[in-house]
């Protein structure tokens, strides 16, 4: 599976296209910057894959005030999730940023530059 990052941090200097790297990854769902801009750059490989969503969990970790007192962050000591049937707006609290974990299986189709809707 091909992927990319707009951030260089955490990637060893000297890496080039095609090198293998390892680490923890988070994938964006419908990342606007890719399908509106990046996919139009000559030579950019197709990175849109088709998936089947097998199950969904909502992050229910409580928020706490950050050490500097400027924002709320998830309390990592109380990390928790709950199984949900979808990402319906009724699951979203207006004062909190919703986070969902989607457990998916790739459909084995070739990646595309365009959204498949």
Protein described:
This protein has one helix and five strands. The chain has one helix at residues 32-36; strands spanning 51-59, 63-65, 72-74, 81-84, 100-106. The radius of gyration is 17 Å and the shape is globular. The strands form two sheets. Strands 4-1-5 form a three-stranded antiparallel β-sheet, with no helix packed on it. Strands 2-3 form a two-stranded antiparallel ribbon. Helix content is 4%, strand content 22%. By secondary structure, it is mainly β.
How do the strands and helices of this protein lay out in sequence?
Elements: H1 32-36, E1 51-59, E2 63-65, E3 72-74, E4 81-84, E5 100-106
Antiparallel strand pairs: 1-4, 1-5, 2-3
